[in-house]
Amino acid sequence: MGIFDDNESQIETGFVSFTVTVSGDGETWRYTNSDAVLVDEDGNEYQPVPVMTSNIQADGAMSGGELDVTLDRSVSLADRFFPEAHPAIYKIVIRQAFHEEGVIIEAPLAFTGVITSVSSSGDGAEFKLKCTTQQGLLNRSGLRRRYQHQCPFLLFGTDCRANRASSQFSATISAPAGTAVSDVNLSFYGEDADNPEIWRGRDLSDLQNRVFMVGATIEFQGVKYVVWDLETWDAANSPNVFRIRLNSRDVTPLRDAVSAAEPADRVCVITPACDHTMACCQQVFSNGRNYGGMPWIPFENPVKTMFVGA
Q1: What pLDDT is stored for residue 3 in this prediction?
Q2: Model-level pTM?
Q3: DSSP 215-282
Q4: Domain ranges of the chain
């Protein structure tokens, strides 16, 4: 665990673990890195799961900045973020837990704040919560948001204003025979038949221009899958075909579903993810005027003829 202020009370005896409590949208999730269930004085149970945190350093003002919390994808909290995030504010509290025989006897506060973003890690087997203190949020300049390089809002949320339906697109999906069992391919074309690698103004042969597909959702036969990575299949001969990487537990079900479908029915709907930059907001979602959740943001830089933040 982290470094605590000198005025934190300490206990000389007992076992030490830490607890993670996440609350939002009327629900609460409680986890611990202990090897058994822990119970606090209010009777709340903390489930033992694989959980890691980055270094925690806090003071009495709780202005210690940011923290990463990594959890296993098997926990129920993951359903709130994958395959699509629920639009809500999630608060997080981490405590150092001194316990005996499964009962927490003291739990000094280590960190409190809100979750600002969620991403997959560990080849899809884990997910990472990026958190910041409430004081950290207050320290951010409100005016800076107009010209910042990243938007803080949830894609398709109330403040985002991007249109989900118009952002989605169709692709042909295949599970090539004789290839690695993890291979699932997508084929989609851009606006220019002579340059199929150009899609919505982006050259998809360039890795940086494919970032919007990391975390994208594929819906095939009513089931949604999350894309962890997108790679070119044969850039020289098939620039419009891409290999997708999925959570290992999703690969076989998707390949089986694709193989069982008639060739004419092997079409999926893709909902792009967002890297929260102005370029992605405009090119992928045609939502540049609302970038940062502010429809009154200047559409053109008052000095240069380009999007603000592009």
Answers
A1: 44
A2: 0.54
A3: T-EEEETTEEEEEEEEEEEETTTEEEEEEEEE-HHHHHHHHHHHHHS-GGG-EEEEE------HHHHH
A4: 15-140, 164-273
